[in-house]
Design brief:
Blueprint: H1 3-21, H2 23-26, H3 42-45, H4 53-74, H5 76-97, H6 107-120, E1 125-128, E2 132-135, H7 136-152, H8 161-191, H9 198-204, H10 213-229, H11 236-243
Antiparallel strand pairs: 1-2
Helix pairs in contact: 1-4, 4-5, 4-6, 5-6, 5-8, 6-7, 6-8, 7-8, 8-9
C-alpha cells in the first residue's frame, strides 16, 4: 500500500461514515454544477461522498487495485495531482453537460487512475467480474464508449457519466504533458552539453531501447524525479541503479 492511496482510502471511508451519521452536514459538500460559483469547495469535497456502500466499495476497490502501482510509477506528488486533477476535470465536464445534476463520488479521480494504469501498461489484462480478461487499454475504450452513449443518450441511471469522461480526459492530458516535459528534459543533454554534474548528462542520454522492459519503469521514474526535484533528491541506490545503464565509455 502506497502512502497517498492509503490516505485517500482512509479519508474517503471516514467521510462516508460522517456522511451517514450527519446527512444534513454532508449536503453542504455535494457538487451541483450550476451552484459551483457560490459553493466552490464542492469541486473537491464531492469526491469524498458516496451514494451507498456499493458505490463506495466499487471506487475504493478500484483505487486499491490500480492506485499503488500507478503511484509507484509516477511518484506520490504527481499521483496526488493526477487524482485531484481528474476529479476537477470531471466536475468541469459535468458543469457543461449536466449543470443541474448533483454529483458525489470518487469515480472521476478513480477513473483518472485507471487511465494512468492503461497509459503505462496498456496490454495488462484486467479481469472483469474476476472472470473475463480485457486489456487495460481496451477497458478504457469500452467504458469511454459506454459513458458517451449513456451520457449523450440521456440514460437516467443515477451514474455521473460526464464526470467519468472528465476524469479520463483530465488524466490523459496530464500524462501527455508529463511525457512532453520528460522529452524536453532528455533533449537538454544535446542542447546544453556544459552540465555541472556530468552524471546527469549521461543519465539523460540513456538509450531506453537497450534497457530491459523490467527496468524501464524504474529508470523513467528516477529520471522524472531528477526533472522535478533535482539530482540532490536521489538516494545513493537510485544513482547506482541509473549508472548501470550508462555505457562504460561514458562513466
Amino acid at each position: 500500500m502506497t502512502p497517498v492511496v492509503r490516505a485517500l482510502l482512509i479519508a474517503t471511508v471516514g467521510a462516508f461514515f460522517l456522511q451517514t451519521t450527519l446527512p444534513a452536514l454532508a449536503n453542504a459538500f455535494v457538487f451541483v454544477p450550476r451552484l459551483a460559483i457560490v459553493r466552490p469547495w464542492t469541486i473537491v469535497t464531492y469526491m469524498f461522498l458516496h451514494g451507498g456502500l456499493m458505490h463506495l466499495g466499487f471506487n475504493m476497490l478500484a483505487l486499491f487495485f490500480f492506485g499503488p502501482r500507478v503511484e509507484e510509477r509516477m511518484g506520490s506528488r504527481r499521483f496526488t495531482i493526477l487524482y485531484f486533477l481528474s476529479g476537477l476535470s470531471g466536475a468541469i465536464v459535468s458543469f457543461f453537460f449536466s449543470p443541474n445534476a448533483p454529483i458525489i463520488g470518487a469515480s472521476a479521480g478513480v477513473f483518472g487512475v485507471m487511465m494512468a494504469f492503461a497509459y503505462f501498461w496498456p496490454n495488462v489484462p484486467i479481469h472483469v467480474w474476476g472472470i473475463i480478461p480485457v486489456p487495460a487499454r481496451m477497458l478504457v475504450i469500452i467504458t469511454t464508449v459506454l459513458a458517451l452513449w449513456s451520457g449523450l443518450g440521456g440514460v437516467r441511471s443515477g451514474v455521473a457519466h460526464f464526470a467519468h469522461l472528465g476524469g479520463y480526459a483530465g488524466a490523459y492530458l496530464y500524462l501527455r504533458w508529463l511525457d512532453r516535459s520528460r522529452t524536453a528534459f532528455r533533449r537538454k543533454a544535446t542542447a546544453a552539453p556544459a552540465v555541472a554534474d556530468r552524471r546527469v548528462e549521461s543519465w539523460r542520454a540513456i538509450d531506453m531501447s537497450r534497457v530491459h522492459e523490467v527496468n524501464r519503469d524504474e529508470v523513467n521514474r528516477i529520471l522524472d524525479k531528477i526533472s522535478a526535484e533535482g539530482i540532490a533528491s536521489l538516494t545513493p541506490q537510485e544513482k547506482v541503479f541509473l549508472s548501470n545503464f550508462v555505457p562504460a565509455t561514458e562513466k
